[in-house]
Design goal:
It contains 12 helices and 8 strands. The chain is of the alpha/beta class. The protein folds into 2 domains: 105 residues, Winged helix-like DNA-binding domain superfamily/Winged helix DNA-binding domain (Arc Repressor Mutant, subunit A, Orthogonal Bundle); 118 residues, Trna Endonuclease, Chain: A, domain 1 (3-Layer(aba) Sandwich), CATH 3.40.1350.10.
């Protein structure tokens, strides 16, 4: 039997999580191979690039879409666990799942697409559209892979204590050039739970200017309200501020900050994940690819 596509794997994989609670990637691969009666030769089949295993790749992507849909969640390296919603879906579903079925789940498309700018390419990838030139397909694939990492990063951050998130935000700010790494330049207040600043960062060597930072965790569907942004803006009294969250900001919160408090920058979970990739925080490079073109100078007639 040929290796099934990742959408065919969705339902049996979800039911495996529902049965066992927590499942490692190795267990998921073994169970998928058994479910579809794959041979050792099937299991050993590589991707066309030869750089990865085809079955492993498809199981990983099936699991990733279950994560997008909040049916399972990563809990530690290589291991994911069923959620309450996942248990409900596993109990109710009998027909094969498609990723389009997940559109009814609040927050799914936001986690999948990341932003409106990425919507077209992400949806094209989901639906298997490959009518674009190879280089563009490579760039689209890069966007899809990066988005998967961003979603997983935010899920892992939410699984850690609040102080971990505050320290992460401090690290990101430091990597972006705020403060000089010394304690006086990066004062961590550690007052999680209120609406005031969690940290004060010096923005110049002499310490003349500073920025206040507030870090607030929240699930993808728990948008930060206008009132929460207003409370933070009021607490810093005109000083530059950065409000960072793992979730998102409501439209009213964004409009309010833009119109009334231009001194306050809003960083949602999507932007935070992008900054973590940029700063290489909490991530490692799995593979890198070179794109070649003909060197016309090499073939020129000029001596």
């Amino acid at each position: 039997m040929s290796i099934p596509d990742y959408q065919s794997i969705l339902l049996p994989l979800l039911k495996l999580y529902a049965e066992r609670g927590e499942v490692s990637l190795t267990e998921a691969i073994d169970a998928t191979a058994a479910h579809f009666e794959l041979t050792d030769a099937d299991r050993a089949q590589p991707l066309p690039s030869g750089r990865d295993n085809l079955l492993r790749n498809r199981v990983e992507w099936a699991r990733q879409y279950l994560v997008y849909a909040t049916l399972v969640r990563p809990v530690r390296h290589g291991v994911a666990a069923i959620t309450e919603l996942g248990q409900q879906w596993a109990a109710e579903r009998t027909a094969p799942l498609k990723v389009t079925d997940f559109k009814v789940i609040p927050g799914y498309e936001q986690r999948l697409l990341g932003s409106a700018d990425g919507a077209a390419t992400a949806l094209a990838a989901v639906e298997g559209v490959a009518s674009t030139p190879p280089l563009q397909r490579l760039e689209d694939a890069d966007l899809e892979l990066r988005q998967a990492v961003i979603v997983n990063l935010m899920d892992r951050v939410l699984a850690r204590p609040p102080v971990f998130f505050e320290r992460l935000v401090m690290l990101v700010m430091a990597r972006l050039g705020y403060g000089d790494g010394t304690e006086p330049a990066m004062r961590h207040a550690g007052r999680g739970g209120d609406h005031g600043a969690d940290a004060t960062l010096k923005t110049d060597v002499l310490g003349v200017d500073e920025v206040r930072v507030h870090a607030r965790r929240g699930a993808a569907d728990e948008a930060i309200s206008r009132e929460q942004v207003a409370a933070f803006a009021g607490s810093i009294a005109g000083v530059k501020g950065v409000f960072v969250t793992t979730s998102s900001f409501s439209r009213h919160a964004v409009e309010f900050a833009r119109a009334s408090h231009p001194n306050v920058a809003l960083v949602d979970g999507q932007k935070l994940g992008e900054l973590m990739l940029r700063c290489k925080l909490g991530v490692s490079v799995r593979k890198s690819y070179e794109v070649f073109d003909v060197d016309e100078d090499f073939f020129s007639d000029d001596e």
